[in-house]
Structures are given as C-alpha cells and as structure tokens.
Amino acid sequence: TQKQRFLCGFCFLLQTPPPHTHKHTHTLSETGPHNIIYESLSMFKNGLTHSDVRIGHSLNSQEETFVKTRLPTVQQCLKNLGIACSPDNVPKIALLGSGGGERAMLGLLGSLDGFKETGLLDCVLYLCGVSGSTWCMASLYQDSDWSTKLDSVKEKIIQRLKGPAVSWSEILLKLMTYYNEKELFSLTDVWAALVVTAFVKEIDEGKLSQQQGHNDKDPFPIYTVIDKQCRQRLHERGVFVEVSPYEAGYSLTGAFVDTSMFGSQFEEGRKIKDQPEIDMLYLQGLCGSCLADGEFIIELLLKKIIEFFHYAAQEKVECGKTSKEGTASVDVGFQILVSLVEMHFSVLKEKDLSGHQTTIRTKLKELTGDESWLVKMPNKTDDNFINMKQFTLEVLECLKTLFSWWNDVLDAIMKCVMEWIWGREYNFLYKMKGVRAAILKSETRDYEDAGIALNSPYISVLRQERGVDLIISLDFGYPFETVTYASEICGDLDIPFPEVDVSSEDPKKPKDFYVFEGKGEEPTVIHIPLFNTVNCGDKVEEWSKKYAVFQPPYSAELIDPLLGVAAINITNNKEKLVQEIQKIINRKHRQKDN
C-alpha cells in the first residue's frame, strides 16, 4: 500500500523508491530477497589484478601498522597503572560509543574525560561509534593527537556547542555545494546541512582520509553504518558497513575500498568515475540520521525544511531580486510550498491531507488564475499514489516559472521529500566479476544509521582479524537492549560473544558497571549504562527524560551536568576496570601456555 511504501526504514524509508526526475541519477535498487554477499565472495577470481576493491578478511596494511605502533603505548599505559605484561600479552581493548543523538555525543565526550583522569585513555586501541557518538568522534579527530590535549579539545567543543547556530547563508551554500558536486543527492545531504549542523554547530568539510597519519597517538577510529537493502537480513553478514580513515566496506564479508573512493562510481571492481569524497558533515549525517522515533524525525526535518525554504525566499526578496509588487506573490508561493511539504509528511504521519489540499488548490488558482488547479488535487488512496507524485511535480514546475527565487536546490529537496531517499551512494561492488550476489546487481546502495539495526558498533570490533580481547560498551540509550541484541545476533552469526545475563530489576535500576566475562575465544564485555543508580540515585528516569534523545539541541546549562555524570561512570570504576584488564592479561598468558 501507499502507506506501507512510506512507513519503513530509517524509521520510514521507502522500500522501492522511484527514480529521480531531476538531473541526479538514482538507479532503482533490487527488490525481493537478497543473496548474502559472503556466499559468493569466495568465487572472486584472483585474475582481477587491477581491481580498486579489496576482497579479503585481513586488516589493511595501514591498520596493521597502526596496531603495531599503538600496542607499545598501551603496554606503557598499563605499566603506569601497575599492570605488568609482556609485548605478546598486551590486551586489545575497544571502546564503543552507542547511539543516542546529542546525549551520546556528550556522553562519549564526558566518558573520555573520565578515561583521561584515570590514566586509562592510552589503553584503548579502537574507538568505535554509531549515530550520535560519531558526532563526538568527528569533533575530536579534527585535532591531531587529540588524546594528548583532551582538556583543551574538550573545552573547544563545549564552547562551540554552547555558541551560535550555523547561519542560514552558510547552510544554503553547503546545500548548493552538495547538489552541484554530487551526482547522487538525497535527504541525507539535507539532513546533514539542516539538522546535524543544528546539533554540532559547525560545517566540517574535512575528509576522513585526510586524517591518515595525523592521529597516531589516538585510538583507531571506526564509524559504522548499515546497508539499507540488506537490513531485513540483519542476522546475516551483508549488513554492517565500517568506515575508517583508510578503508570503507562490509565488516563481516571482507569487501573494502579506499575511503577516499567511497561514493565514487565503480564497475567490475574498477573505479570508472570520481565522485567527491564524502566530507565529515555528510558522514555525521549518514551515521547520525536516526535520532529517535520516526515521529520526532519527521517533525524535525519538516520544521527545518520549512525554515530553510522561508530563508531562501526572503533572501531573494531582500536582495532585490523580487519586486515589491511581487512580494505578496512570494508569500503565496511560500504558503503553497509549505503545504506541499506538509502534505507529503502527513502521509508519513497518517494524518488527513484535506487542509493542505485546499490551500494548494486555492493558492495556485489565486496565483495563476487557472481554475483547473481546483480539480488536479489527488487524495491519499493507494490508487492515486502516482497521481499525487505527478501533481507534486506539476506544482514544482509552476513555482519554478513564477518565482525568480526558486532554484534547483529547492526543487531537489522537494523531490527528495517526495521520494524519501536517504544515503544513496554508488555501489563499489557493482558487477564485480566472479561474484553473483544480488548486492552486486544494483549500481547504487542506500546507507543509513547503524543504530536502526544495532545501536552500538559491536560488529566492527568483533571481526576475528582484529582480535579484540576486551570491549568497553558505553550505552547512552536503553541500558541493556543493545548488548542483549548483540549477543543474539552473534549467536546467529557464530561470532564468539559472552553470555549476557541480567536480572529483571537491572533495566529498571541499572548499576554503573557490568561484566560479561568471555571464555575461550569470546571477548569480555564491560557494560556501562549512562544513567544509573550510582550517578543518578533514585532519579534515573528523571535524568533520562531531562536528556531525552528526541528533543532539539540542548541548552548551554544542560551540557556540563551531562558531561559530569558520564565522567563519573569511569572515575568511580577505575579499580574495576584495572582488575578486568588484569584478568584479560592473565587469560592470554594461560592460553599461550596451553
């Protein structure tokens, strides 16, 4: 049905999106069951020697070099804490930041401050994030070797978050850049420019690949997203996608491409056309597009698009590009545009369209004098889905001819709203020789917030090649939902993961430190809920509501207390963390002896 076509994904991503009608090419993704890519990658032909795609489960050479360089730092950090270990027994520790919007961003920043205060920060080999945690990571890694000067870096981030918003003129310029430079323009571009900037208070145009070699004294960063077309097969291996300064690709299937090429056009394993490397603002939009429930996302995006359209129209009027006699018409045109946007969002929210229909009909008749507009409006029944799209395109064409302030970016945004396409990029595995998986048949793929599937980046660090011994899970969402689900997924995928055993009382009254001890090849998982009975007392629910994920950017007075409770979770548990690290070293020693 029409409603079902809208109500899926991202929280409501279209399952079978139609192609764009403007200059950007959007190839339809395949529908129906998806083959699993790893089933076919074994057929990859060694004769394809000039491929720009790396097929294999090994770590890339740059990450291997980083690990060799970082482990002595970890060893020295442990020595400073009174823990002795040989070079062969240095534990590989991964710190995970869950999703959770600005709460996750600040929660991770505060937690890292706690690791710095306890002297544990240099023990961390990998720093991985999804959703809101990646906003913190993006801010940190702007500074080379940020962990050596965390106090000043943290203060710079805090002052930015407490400062003024990004101006509409800068946002318009950024959207124009995305539209003009990229062949594939989607709502992720709009989300990044309009919404992410409202939270992070900056436009970060740096590139992830530019960080290569500039953060050797920091943990290795890994950002996580998912392949939307594979999401329905979550308990199989073709879903999770990781992005580091060196490579981007499918974590469990062993298919990667240089990060600078991620988004470029590929065919048969070779890059055939450059696309601009995605910048850090877009990456934050890609990773952090699932702030909360779908209703909040719809409302927030609707509000921001309407504000942006209003700015675009008014800016042209104020610049004298519209005569005074035309100002009233501009206002009418803006009302039409707002009603058109709200009409499409009403479908997502299952609300009545009649009020928006009436406004559009009467205002267009008022502007054009053409009474035929009064009979062109479709209703929201399934049979009229195509008619509603056609009507929208006709309205856009009319506005384009009536107003000098209308431009291609506004047109593209409206069409993205109409088609509800997010995170569309060229598929670097398109038509790979010797590989038959369905994923290879589509020229493009749609990537989205990994928090939709699993709200913490467990899968990236559970790659066997990384050999992670200890996972420290910082949970900024629901206390045990993610770690429990990770255990279930790992069971289905035959990935070693410890048993997760929590009492019925724990979700209601979470403590500040849990250990799920690994056996054999399983890593140990330390799980730390953000709000708990130690740092919040009996007001856990009150803190959770105060710092709700689904709300506009936090006011300045909310920032410092959140940083504080996150840091306390680490400083209060220094001795327990040290004890668990010692246990890992002892276990590694025993395993080598056996």
From TrEMBL:
<dbReference type="InterPro" id="IPR002642">
    <property type="entry name" value="LysoPLipase_cat_dom"/>
</dbReference>
<dbReference type="GO" id="GO:0005829">
    <property type="term" value="C:cytosol"/>
</dbReference>
<keyword id="KW-0442">Lipid degradation</keyword>
<dbReference type="GO" id="GO:0005509">
    <property type="term" value="F:calcium ion binding"/>
</dbReference>
<dbReference type="GO" id="GO:0047498">
    <property type="term" value="F:calcium-dependent phospholipase A2 activity"/>
</dbReference>
<keyword id="KW-0175">Coiled coil</keyword>
<dbReference type="GO" id="GO:0046475">
    <property type="term" value="P:glycerophospholipid catabolic process"/>
</dbReference>
<dbReference type="GO" id="GO:0005544">
    <property type="term" value="F:calcium-dependent phospholipid binding"/>
</dbReference>
<feature type="domain" description="PLA2c">
    <location>
        <begin position="45"/>
        <end position="594"/>
    </location>
</feature>
<dbReference type="InterPro" id="IPR016035">
    <property type="entry name" value="Acyl_Trfase/lysoPLipase"/>
</dbReference>
<protein>
    <submittedName>
        <fullName>Cytosolic phospholipase A2 gamma-like</fullName>
    </submittedName>
</protein>
<dbReference type="Pfam" id="PF01735">
    <property type="entry name" value="PLA2_B"/>
</dbReference>
<dbReference type="GO" id="GO:0005654">
    <property type="term" value="C:nucleoplasm"/>
</dbReference>
<keyword id="KW-0443">Lipid metabolism</keyword>
<keyword id="KW-0378">Hydrolase</keyword>
<dbReference type="GO" id="GO:0005635">
    <property type="term" value="C:nuclear envelope"/>
</dbReference>
<feature type="coiled-coil region">
    <location>
        <begin position="567"/>
        <end position="594"/>
    </location>
</feature>
